[in-house]
From TrEMBL:
<dbReference type="GO" id="GO:0043024">
    <property type="term" value="F:ribosomal small subunit binding"/>
</dbReference>
<dbReference type="GO" id="GO:0030490">
    <property type="term" value="P:maturation of SSU-rRNA"/>
</dbReference>
<keyword id="KW-0963">Cytoplasm</keyword>
<comment type="similarity">
    <text>Belongs to the RbfA family.</text>
</comment>
<dbReference type="GO" id="GO:0005829">
    <property type="term" value="C:cytosol"/>
</dbReference>
<dbReference type="InterPro" id="IPR020053">
    <property type="entry name" value="Ribosome-bd_factorA_CS"/>
</dbReference>
<dbReference type="InterPro" id="IPR023799">
    <property type="entry name" value="RbfA_dom_sf"/>
</dbReference>
<protein>
    <recommendedName>
        <fullName>Ribosome-binding factor A</fullName>
    </recommendedName>
</protein>
<comment type="function">
    <text>One of several proteins that assist in the late maturation steps of the functional core of the 30S ribosomal subunit. Associates with free 30S ribosomal subunits (but not with 30S subunits that are part of 70S ribosomes or polysomes). Required for efficient processing of 16S rRNA. May interact with the 5'-terminal helix region of 16S rRNA.</text>
</comment>
<keyword id="KW-0690">Ribosome biogenesis</keyword>
<dbReference type="InterPro" id="IPR000238">
    <property type="entry name" value="RbfA"/>
</dbReference>
<dbReference type="InterPro" id="IPR015946">
    <property type="entry name" value="KH_dom-like_a/b"/>
</dbReference>
<dbReference type="Pfam" id="PF02033">
    <property type="entry name" value="RBFA"/>
</dbReference>
<comment type="subunit">
    <text>Monomer. Binds 30S ribosomal subunits, but not 50S ribosomal subunits or 70S ribosomes.</text>
</comment>
Amino acid sequence: MPYRPERLAEIIKKEVSDMLRDELKDPRIGFVTITGVEVSTDLRYARIFFSVLGSEEEAKASLEALNRARGYVRSELGRRIRLRYAPEISFKLDPSIQRGIRVMELLHDVKERGAAGDD
């Protein structure tokens, strides 16, 4: 397993998180968290996974705003990271946090039903 894409993914995750916190001021971008980055083995493509704390509409609005800011994010990555080519980036919504919340709700419901059945 090549080590360099993983290392680059961590750097991209940190830099994009910094940009989201300090530079991107689009109001459509909600409470976005970068959850992971996948970089191709040739280092030319990067998929950035993010989650949004909020409704599905807010997640879609955040995705649209991030896709509109792709050029800026890519140029900033090219400026901040010393690479021959700045990777072509794409943003993908990561639903794992929503799935985790749903699983926790279901487990809580099962626990309450079990407690009610014991009475």
